[in-house]
């Protein structure tokens, strides 16, 4: 049986991937159970997906042997032989489970955040001894693990983040643009993601003000995640008003009908300072839409150094302007973009996870 631990009240990409992957493995015939906090977003999503749920209390980040013992007893009763975690916060308790079970319960850590500084302290090195597999979604993250930890390199794997391409719904570009009241003769750029300073939407707005052409429109779609970002969102709106860009920039609330968004744009701009993986980049490629992205982190690796889009210097608005001015969507073959996106198909990801689990048990 596979157990997925999600000990948080947050609901971001990490938590979504954890429950999503649990559901995929269940649908492939595995016995799956999820351990979550009662009435957390993960709890409600797991319930929606009809996953077996066990509610637990909040544990500490380090040396919480009491809760580790309690969780181990539950895992033992359920005959769980593999525990999967995604948060570094949960690594300590996962290592404790491995120790308490005399390594009979295999522990897998799926990396979701960058590891840009050293974690070679003795207590961490000892903890990593009880992690059976450290899975990285991209190769540059695997390099970070080798550089910044003392974990056995043989325990580190590259397993891409899975994407469900069966849910991709494409529409005609003219139809999509009509839905947003856009002309079919203009160039349309898009930015998708929560409105947050780290996501860089304001830089793209400033770039629009410096473009050589007025025959361009920018669509920004996303939600303001918390009240903390109210000032940031307002600063974007104020800039748009001040520079008289209301006819060129549309700020749209997040919609689950993002197929219209991707079908309407000529390029997706990924302006994040340093995107860890960038599932939105993969999603864009699945629609045959090229990328203008920051030249750091996951975006750079996914684009294979400009084979699938254009890279600009991170946080450099003038370089972004240059790349937007010279952008030609027809330069990129849609079939090539689609082929690259399919490398992240969820079935391929699940196959790799199954192969890894099988190898750890034998």
Could you please describe the fold and organization of this structure?
The chain is α/β, with parallel strands linked by helices and 362 residues long. It folds into 2 domains: 2-162 and 345-361, Rossmann fold; 165-343, Rossmann fold. It contains 15 helices and 13 strands. It has a 7-stranded parallel sheet with strand order 3-2-1-4-5-6-7, with helices on both faces. α8 links the parallel β8 (187-192) and β9. The longest helix is centred in the C-terminal third of the chain and has 16 residues, at 346-361. The radius of gyration is 22 Å and the shape is elongated. The two termini are 15 Å apart. The model has no long low-confidence stretch (mean pLDDT 92).
């Amino acid at each position: 049986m596979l157990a997925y631990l999600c000990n948080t009240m947050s609901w971001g990409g990490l938590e979504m991937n954890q429950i999503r992957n649990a559901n995929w493995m269940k649908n492939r015939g595995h016995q799956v159970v999820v351990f979550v906090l009662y009435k957390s977003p993960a709890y409600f999503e797991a319930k929606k997906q009809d996953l077996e749920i066990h509610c637990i209390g909040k544990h500490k980040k380090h040396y919480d042997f009491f809760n580790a013992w309690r969780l181990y007893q539950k895992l033992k009763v359920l005959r769980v032989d593999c525990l999967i975690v995604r948060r570094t916060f949960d690594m300590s308790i996962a290592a404790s489970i491995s120790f308490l079970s005399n390594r009979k319960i295999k522990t897998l850590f799926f990396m979701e955040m960058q590891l840009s500084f050293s974690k070679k302290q003795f207590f961490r090195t000892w903890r990593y001894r009880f992690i059976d597999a450290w899975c990285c979604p991209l190769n540059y993250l695997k390099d970070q693990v080798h550089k910044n930890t003392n974990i056995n390199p043989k325990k580190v794997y590259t397993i891409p983040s899975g994407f469900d391409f069966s849910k991709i719904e494409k529409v005609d570009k003219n139809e999509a643009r009509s839905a947003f009241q856009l002309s079919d003769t203009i160039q349309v750029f898009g930015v998708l993601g929560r409105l947050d300073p780290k996501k860089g939407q304001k830089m793209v707005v400033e770039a629009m003000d410096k473009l050589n052409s007025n025959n361009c429109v920018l669509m920004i779609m996303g939600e303001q995640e918390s009240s903390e970002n109210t000032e940031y969102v307002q600063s974007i709106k104020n800039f748009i008003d001040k520079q008289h860009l209301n006819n060129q920039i549309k700020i749209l609330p997040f919609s689950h009908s993002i197929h219209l968004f991707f079908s309407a744009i000529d390029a997706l701009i990924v302006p994040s300072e340093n995107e860890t993986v960038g599932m939105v980049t993969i999603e864009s490629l699945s629609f045959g839409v090229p990328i203008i992205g920051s030249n750091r982190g996951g975006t750079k690796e996914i684009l294979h150094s400009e084979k699938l889009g254009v890279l600009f210097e991170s946080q450099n608005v003038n370089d972004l302007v240059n790349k937007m001015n010279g952008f030609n969507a027809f330069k990129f073959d849609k079939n090539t973009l689609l082929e690259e996106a399919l490398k992240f198909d969820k079935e391929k990801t699940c196959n790799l996870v199954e192969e890894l689990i099988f190898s750890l048990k034998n």
